[in-house]
Design brief:
Structural class: mainly beta
Strand order of the largest sheet: 1-4-5-6-7-8-9-10
Number of strands: 10
Low-confidence stretches: 1-15, 17-31
Largest sheet: 8 strands, antiparallel, barrel
Mean pLDDT: 88
Shape: elongated
Helix content: 10-25%
Distance between the termini: 50 Å
Order of helices and strands: HEEEEEEEEEE
């Protein structure tokens, strides 16, 4: 009788431990994959920046209106995210982008004393823009959990940019500027689950940076990137 009682107690303990383990495993399975980290890289296509401004130095005043044009460049970034549920995520990202100046065009009036000289047209430019971005974004997956998911999102953060111009129309110049400004992002993309822990995707982002100052418009750019992320 005592032996059967001990066996019954042992069986109860065994079944209880097994049920607890199964419950823990089920909870772990439900929670697994909520965190993820990844990298993105692609092409950045800055839009023209218009300006209408004037500057004076050494008795000469230049009044100008026109636009800066840029060449496409590249971007690279790393990001981390958390899935709150099948439809909503949060992400933080650190990104770097670089692109070159292409041309400057517009009307320019030089005033020195009573003499005015006006020129118009365009000229090639040499120079570069580097930008470091930190963004936090919300991402919505309208279809919930699926092998292929469309993504929609938006982010806010800061952008640190450094600009350098080395020549205009073949004439060597030395001009530099930098600043840190508010950055906003709109995003749409597509992501595919290729294994139990790896996702591949493509995203389009529209970036706006509050860099306008003294007659210069804000900076905007299109960014198309590929992404790979690991869920853990």
């Amino acid at each position: 009788m005592m032996m059967r009682t001990l066996l019954l107690i042992a069986a109860g303990i065994g079944f209880g431990a097994g049920a607890a383990l199964a419950q823990d495993q089920g909870q772990a399975s439900m929670k697994s994959g909520n965190f993820y980290a990844g990298v993105m890289a692609g092409v950045v296509m800055p839009e023209d920046v218009s300006f209408s401004s004037n500057a004076s130095q050494g008795g000469t005043t230049v009044t100008a209106s026109g636009k800066f044009e840029y060449q496409p460049g590249y971007s690279a970034s790393a990001y981390m995210g958390y899935r709150f549920n099948p439809y909503l995520r949060g992400e933080v990202e650190g990104a770097y982008a670089r692109f070159d100046y292409d041309k400057i065009s517009g009307n320019f009036t030089l005033t020195q004393g009573s003499t005015n000289v006006t020129v118009s047209g365009s000229a090639d430019m040499d120079g570069e823009v580097q930008s470091w971005l930190g963004l936090a974004r919300g991402v919505v997956s309208p279809l919930g959990k699926s092998k292929i998911q469309p993504l929609l999102g938006g982010g806010v953060g800061v952008a640190r940019h450094e600009e350098k111009i080395t020549s205009i129309g073949g004439t060597a110049v030395s001009a530099k500027a930098d600043g840190t400004d508010l950055a906003l992002e709109g995003m749409a993309g597509l992501e595919a689950e290729v294994s139990s822990s790896i996702d591949l995707g493509i995203r389009y982002r529209y970036l706006w940076i509050d860099s306008g100052d003294k007659g210069f418009d804000d900076s905007t750019a299109h960014n198309v990137v590929g992404s790979v992320s690991y869920r853990f």
